[in-house]
Each structure stands twice: as C-alpha cells, then as structure tokens.
Amino acid sequence: MNLIENIREGLRSIAGNRLRTILTSLIIAIGITSLVGILTAIDGIQSSVDNSFAGLGANTFSIVARQDAFRRGGRVQRQDKPINYFDAMQFKRRFPYGATIAISAGISGAAQAKFGSKKTNPNVQLVGGDDAYLTVKGFTLESGRNLTQNDLKFALNVAIIGSELANTLFEKKINPLNQVIRVSGSQYKVVGVLAKKGGFSGGSDDRIILIPLDNARALAGNQQLTFDITASVPNVSDQDEAVGEARGTMRLVRRDQLGQPDSFEIQRADDLAKETANITSYLRMGGFGIGFITLLGASIALLNIMLVSVTERTREIGIRKSLGATPKRIREQFLIEAIVICLLGGIGGVILGLGVGNLIAGIISQGAGSFVVPWAWMGLGLVVCVTVGLFAGIYPAVRASKLDPIEALRYE
Fold first, then answer.
1. Which of 268, 295, 310 lies at the terminal end of a domain, its last residue?
2. Which pLDDT band holds residue 72 (cuts at 50, 70, 90)?
3. Strands 124-129, 208-212: parallel, antiparallel or unpaired by DSSP?
4. Are residues 147 and 244 in the same domain?
5. Does residue 102 contact residue 20 with C-beta atoms inside 8 Å?
6. Confidence (pTM)
7. What residues pair up with 265 in beta bridges, in sequence order?
8. What domain count does the chain have?
9. What is the pLDDT of residue 70?
10. Which burial class, exposed, middle or buried, applies to 214 when counting CB atoms under 10 A from its CB (0-12, 13-18, 19+)?
C-alpha cells in the first residue's frame, strides 16, 4: 500500500465517521478561534490607536502639568503646579520656533447639554480653546465654521459641538447651526459641528463642546483651571529641536531653577504611540498564552478520540496487516487522519477568529479601526493545527502500528 492509497484510506475513514469528525473539528476550531480571535482583536485595536495618533500627527507635542502623585515618607512627590493662563500665553508669545500652538483648558468632563426638551447624558467634555485647537488636535468640521479672532477677543457665547451631541440634541431633524444650546447654566450659539472622530478614546471626542478660551475662564469662575499647550511643528524632522526649544522656553516661563527638574511634562505623539505599541505587544503574548492553553485542551480531546478510534478499528488494523500493510503505513494513516481533522477545524477556526476578532476591535474602537486581516496569525493558526494533529495523532498511530495482527483479527 503506497502513500497515495494511504491518504485516500484516511480520507475515506474520516468521511465514514462524519459526526465524530465534525465534533472533533469543532473542538479544534474553538481553540483556533480563541487564538486567532484574540490576536486579531489586539491588532484591530492597535490599528484604531494608530489612526487616532495619526490624527494628531507625528509632529505634535503637548506641554502639561503632571497631576499624578505618589507618597514617599508621608509626603506627596512630583505633583506639578498647574499651568495657569499666564504661563500658557507667555509661552505662546515667547516660543521662538515656527509652530502652530493651541491653548486649551478642560472646564468639565461631566457636563450636560440641553436644547429645548432634549438633553444629553452628563458625560460631555466642555473645553475652552482657541482658533488653532481643531487643527492641532486633528478635528475636522462637518459643517459650520471654526472659532474666529472676534469670538476669542470678545469671549462670545458661541460653541462648536461634536457629532454625537448634534445627533442627540437635534436628531438629524433640525440643522444645528445657529441654534442655541444650554450648558453649565449658560447659553451658546452653535457655529460649527465636528465630523465623527471616534477612535480609542471611547467616543469622548464626539461628545465635546468647544467654546472660546476667555469665555471658558469666565464660566469657570473660582475654579482653578489647568491649561494645556499643544504645538505642531511644520516638519517631523524638526520635532527634536522644537521640543528642546519648548523645554527651555517653558522653564523660563515657569522660573524653574538650574539643576531642578522640569515642573511640567512634554508628551510627544510618537512617544505615546510607541508606548501603546509596547503595551499591545504584552497583550499579544498574553493572548497567545491563553489561546495556547485552549489549544492544549483541544489536543488532549483529539488524542482521546484518536485512541477510541484505534480501539474501534482494531479488527480493521489486523486485516490490513494480514494483507501486507507495514507498521509505517498504519502510523501514516492515523497521522493523516489526525492532521486532516485538525486542518478542517483550523480553517473554520481561522475564519471564525477573523470575524470575532474584528467584531471585538470594532466594538471597542466604535468602528474607527479598519478591517484587519492578520495573515501572520492566520498562518500561525494553521501551523499550530498541524502541530496539534501530530501531537495528538503520534501516540495512537504508534499504538495502532504495534498491534499484533493475529490478536487484532480475534478482537470483537
């Protein structure tokens, strides 16, 4: 009996036990789905994060005050003094490098907007900003206009709202432009609506209300605001030099003493992207570990089923040996059966994993990420399937090849 005939015999055996083949393939498919699905979801989330950072641009950096603190010896350390309005405006005037600079301040992250009888959930971001805010932060206008110098100079009650707020308050029945909404006890005329941004932020960028900076300061009253400074340099190659200039200028503005650490932090968009990529690499390792454990359980189940198959076909093995089949051919047949069953389950698992992974990534990123086809993970899944087939099939195959033909023929 040659190898081709052995393959045919293995396939005939698989076709003759369809229910067992389907159930066994499903066990493998579930294991592969977990492996490919988790890794695909992580790739999809990473794609969404990359798109979010791409919106900011690789040539963008922000200057913020560190508010994270830790205790040492009972005393709070490394909590920077907030960047006030004077610091931010001084920096903008004194920064010598040619860059677009946006000054902003968060008034509230839990504001509620109202229009007539309609109102939003109390999860609206109320932000004060200038005319450079939308450009530097990567927002685009769907309709209307940006804040103007006149709006900023006279602190007019005008606002630009996110797409989610426009849909909630006006339900696509009324044109939001020039309508008056109420937020934090003040009325604002809507002069612009932002295009949907979504992304890894959980949709918070679509629940934003941007008002003129000085208007926001007046609205805050006695609330102490922390101002953020975001700069966008013309060329990515100039960013290192611009960041150095920004650090020196900000130290002068904040009067940081020589030899003392910065009283602020500079966050680069590309640094944040790299940090996120490092985090997702750990997630991939964890996802691979979880998928591997699931596949290990599937391989044990396949091993058990193959052992049952050997026991059921003891008489058949005896007949084949009496007709001249060598132990090698017997081993080949059972290995081929195990590998084919694993490949059937693997192909189904890869398809399911691809769909499930992209579905999870789409839900988390709110549809902002693109459809991901991870060819490497799909190929890895099929390779793992063959490995599992060999692992689960080698012992039953060896056991079948060592059966004594006379004893096997007597088996009932």
1. 268
2. very low
3. parallel
4. yes
5. no
6. 0.59
7. 64
8. 2
9. 44
10. middle
